[in-house]
Amino acid sequence: MRRHRRAKIVATVGPASASPEMLKALFVAGVDTFRLNFSHGTHEDHARSHAAIRALEQEMGRPIGILMDLQGPKIRVGTIRDGRLDLVVDEAIRFLPGGTDGDRMSIPLPHPEIFAALSPGDRLLIDDGRIRVRVTGVQSDRIDARVETAGVLSNRKGVNVPGAVLDLSPLTPKDRADLAFGLELGVDWVALSFVQKPGDLLEARGLVGDRAGLVAKIERPSALTCLDDIIRLSDAVMVARGDLGVEIPPEEVPGRQKEIVRACRLAVKPVIVATQMLDSMVSSPAPTRAEASDVATAIYDGADAVMLSAESASGAYPVESVAMMDRIIRSTEQHKMYRSLVQAAQLEEEHTAPHAVAAAAAALAEGIEAPTIVAFTSSGTTAARIARKRPAVSILAITANEQVSRRLCLLWGAHSLRAEDVHTYEDMVQRAVDCAQEEEFAHPGELIVVVAGVPFGQAGTTNNLRVVQIPRA
């Protein structure tokens, strides 16, 4: 099954989409990678979804990626007296580290790391920013604040602390148990929430190792200040615009999105743009025009993948949401402005042989109007280096590694295919010709560009480029 687009679709599995029949319908409609959101559902729920996706993979004969998304720390107020407090502008309030049955001067905030990190002048955003308060004083056992934006404070509402780096691991005990479970299942990607600094990636890497790719979710302002290091330590990045859009001004989110996408392309790391992309389709069969433009903007930026959350997990129109996203991507990529906008973001080449070969392959394929570039890749890096150029031709990525073939389901332009390792130059040429025809990427008489590393099967050895003509019958 060949997708007639370059950017990939990630869809979240939930109550609306967990049945085998619905998962198949979503895959046929365009899903390349399924997301298991461990903020919801039980281990048994996720195990059933994982098994159904792997069965679907066998049925369809195509690799399918599975991404597990860890919940991360959740900072919330405690229990409020009578279940609500009506806060008004300029009102003085106080947060305490313990206690229950809170009132205005004893709002429970059971997170001592917040008390240690805040200073007067910092802000707390409550309930996704619906309530905003300014800190006026901090002691070890209390935070005094004044209300800037009024609202109703109720039990267990979330709290964002945009102005501080908290002494808090991104991996809670729940996350560690979930991670061990997901790795045992055999997920392809692990998305790490609440990334504040590069060290958070090192902690996660120690647990994940090479059993899955590590996705850093950019949702905290502090992560933006050390973005390059976070990208370097991750295998992919997610622009998690939900929390990020709460903690930084909304008008800054589009520019930050472009910065992150560009930085990931420079680092040869896949990047996913996520959150509220087609949000109105949770309850409507069609998106707003603004949402369609939002998806298209991510594609013009050069994102590797775009993601559906509630639209596919709990919405009334999961298949329609995937089909709509597929249509928007294809329409955008076929628009006359697409190539010029993507090419305008071309990046300076790294002065290494693998990068030079990949760049030459992209330029050569376009120059001779080859229908595809066949990339033999053991780790996925060769295909990623070619995809970094965003060539006008498709990338047929051939690998002997099953997990690599699944991870490539996040990579822009890559049609991944699992096949046995080649051992000689002649094997490579014949395998490229056979696969290009079997997958309907090339026809007799056409020229294809073949990229590989010699010796074969060794990661990071991209050093060979060849033009091959498909034999005529």
Account of the 3D structure:
The chain is α/β, with parallel strands linked by helices. Helix content is 37%, strand content 23%. It is elongated and about 85 Å long.
Provide a compact summary of the structure.
The protein is of the alpha/beta class. The chain is built from 17 helices and 21 strands.
Defining traits:
473 residues, alpha/beta, TIM Barrel, M1 Pyruvate Kinase, Domain 3, Pyruvate Kinase, Chain: A, domain 1, 3 domains, 8-stranded parallel barrel, 21 strands, elongated
Structural class: alpha/beta
Indicate the radius of gyration in whole angstroms.
24 Å
Number of strands: 21
The total of helices stands at 17
Calculate the mean pLDDT score and round it: 95
Largest sheet, described in full? Answer: 8 strands, parallel, barrel
State the CATH architecture of the largest domain: Alpha-Beta Barrel
What layout of secondary structure does this protein have?
Blueprint: E1 8-13, H1 20-29, E2 33-37, H2 43-60, E3 65-69, E4 84-87, E5 92-96, E6 107-108, H3 112-117, E7 123-126, E8 131-139, E9 142-149, E10 151-154, E11 159-160, H4 173-185, E12 189-192, H5 198-208, E13 213-218, H6 221-225, H7 227-233, E14 236-240, H8 241-247, H9 253-267, E15 271-274, H10 289-301, E16 305-308, H11 310-313, H12 318-334, H13 338-344, H14 353-367, E17 372-376, H15 381-387, E18 394-399, H16 402-407, E19 414-418, H17 425-438, E20 447-453, E21 462-469
Parallel strand pairs: 1-2, 1-16, 2-3, 3-12, 5-6, 12-13, 13-14, 14-15, 15-16, 17-18, 17-20, 18-19
Antiparallel strand pairs: 4-10, 5-9, 7-8, 7-11, 8-9, 20-21
Helix pairs in contact: 1-12, 5-7, 7-9, 10-12, 14-15
